[in-house]
């Protein structure tokens, strides 16, 4: 798998029609801030919700950092993911540029996507994404960071953006059990080698299998 450009055109990438999940990262241009105020995060989430519904993608986990975003997402159609990011670039990018009186692309020009082909790696990506604020020193507990899906997956807070993945649903027979088991998983730090594998796959655009 190769990197996707912001215009929606992939480089030799083929996404299976089986709705396989992907770990996706998009960074601000030159690593600039893409969120400056609380309302920016809210606007991005609103634009994301619209795009998820219109371009048929299931979002399983996300984290919004100050200069980049992480998503665990399953596109239902071949063109779902590029269309989603084109929409975000137009809707949120236009809002951000107008609000802060800037011009040009807000994003780095492409997003990075890694196909996830094993259950083990899927749960690692869940944790990698939602524990990112802790690794960045922004919080001591994942539930304290507002702009992540951990409060939904780990604590049961309603998040209309989230569609639980089948593997997440296997964590327990009911919501409370699943959330408790997920919290236990997130209490276990990822090994350095596991994080290296995830980052390498994103950088190279190769599957995690």
From TrEMBL:
Residues 17-132 form the Transposase IS200-like domain. InterPro entries: Transposase_17 (IPR002686), Transposase_17_sf (IPR036515). It comes from the Bacteria. This is Transposase. One of its GO terms (molecular function) is DNA binding. It comes from Pseudoduganella ginsengisoli. One of its GO terms (biological process) is DNA transposition. Pfam families: Y1_Tnp (PF01797).
């Amino acid at each position: 798998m190769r990197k996707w450009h912001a215009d929606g055109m992939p480089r030799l990438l083929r996404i299976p029609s089986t709705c396989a999940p992907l770990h996706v990262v998009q960074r601000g241009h030159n690593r600039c801030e893409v969120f400056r105020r609380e309302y920016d995060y809210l606007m991005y989430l609103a634009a994301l919700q619209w795009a998820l519904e219109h371009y048929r993608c299931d979002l399983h986990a996300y984290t919004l950092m100050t200069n980049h975003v992480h998503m665990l997402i399953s596109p239902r159609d071949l063109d779902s993911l590029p269309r989603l990011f084109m929409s975000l670039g137009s809707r949120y990018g236009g809002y951000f540029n107008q609000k802060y009186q800037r011009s040009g692309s807000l994003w780095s020009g492409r997003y990075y996507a890694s196909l996830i082909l094993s259950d083990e790696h899927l749960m690692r990506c869940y944790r990698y994404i939602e524990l990112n604020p802790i690794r960045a020193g922004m919080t001591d507990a994942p539930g304290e960071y507002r702009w992540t899906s951990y409060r939904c997956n780990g604590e049961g807070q309603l998040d209309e953006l989230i569609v639980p993945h089948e593997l997440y649903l296997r964590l327990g027979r009911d919501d409370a059990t699943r959330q408790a088991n997920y919290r236990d998983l997130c209490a276990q730090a990822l090994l350095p080698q596991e994080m290296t594998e995830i980052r390498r796959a994103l950088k190279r655009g190769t599957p995690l299998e």
